[in-house]
Amino acid sequence: MEFVDSVAAWLLDPAHWAGPDGIPTRIGEHLLLSVGPLLAAVVVALPLGLYIGHTGRGAFLAVNLSNIGRALPSLGILGIFLPITAGLGLGFGVPPTVIALFALAIPPIVTNTFTGIREVDPELIEAGRGMGMRERELLAKVELPLAMPIVLAGLRTSAVQVVATATLGAVLGTGGLGRYIIDGIKQQDDPRLFVGAVIVALLAIATELAFAALQRAAVSPGIRASGRSAPALAVDARPPI
Amino acid sequence: MPDEPLIRFDWIVDNIGEIGRRLGEHLVMTVIAVLVGFVISFALALLIRRYHALAGPVLGVSGVLYTVPSLALFALVLPFTGLSLLSAEIALVSYTVLILVRNLLTGLDSVPPDVTEAAVGMGFTPSQRLWRIELPIALPVIVAGLRIATVTTIGLVTVTSLIGQGGLGYLIVTIGINQFFPTPIYVGAILSVALAIGADIGLLRVQHALTPWARARASSG
Question: Range of B105's domain?
Answer without folding.
Answer: 9-212
